[in-house]
Amino acid sequence: MATVGQWIEGARLRTLPMAVAPVIIGTAAAYDLGGLHWGRALLAALVSLLLQVGVNYANDYSDGIRGTDEVRVGPLRLVGSGAAAPRQVKMAAFGALGLAMVAGLVLVILSQAWWLLLVGAGAVIAAWGYTGGKNPYGYMGLGDVFVFFFFGPVATLGTTFTQAGAVSTAAVLGSVATGLIAVALLMANNVRDIPTDREVGKRTLAVRLGDRPARLSYVVMLGVSVAIMMVLVPAKPWLLLVLLLVPFMLMPSWLMLKGKKRKSLIPVLKQTGLLNLGFSVLFAVAMVLTGL
Which fold has domain 4-291? Predict the structure, then answer.
């Protein structure tokens, strides 16, 4: 029987900033458009967080029953370690995803953006299909594409639209930036697991690229996430604030490029999550200062 602490660890709190960041960016973009709505922002955050917890438990369950997590370097996995029965973890995943659907439905009703029901259904299916089912796309190297799409444009622009009824160039570029940082976090996780993933036939993008190119891609994604925001600087000079993140990108980038032991990459997950959160906060501050 897993303890409360083990269930919390199984929820993978290090990944939660990438669920919050797009909501902060989307809300800041809605403010810039004159459509800020705190209640809907909180609902969007709840949906995003529940989806992330749901996909984390779903991955734990699916990888655990496949035996993918039997030998791993990273944090605890509930099923793989034997701390919790597979059915318990499966039900936890279904519970989180179910609550996300309820919160999403309320958000759609309030915003009257009925077409987002299809987007929400797609997000839930993608959450389960990452490592679940007969042909999980995470095992084919497509996980990075889906993470970028759902934790970048979908979460960010969905948040903006449900508040302001429109999107902007700032929202679009912000969604691309946060999506890239989310993929960088996934890449750090998958680079760490290349040897064990290759052994069990899990062909993540990191496995397909190979160790060195995958590590380099992490650094490139962080750099591009900041660089693309400079496009908006002529119209919104306060976005230069995102450059404050650059010094904090150096340590995780150095670890990704130079860390020989797989365990040395574990802190990169937390650092990258905090970078995404920091990016979103600086973006929001820039939007507020621009509107003053």
Answer: Farnesyl Diphosphate Synthase (1.10.600)
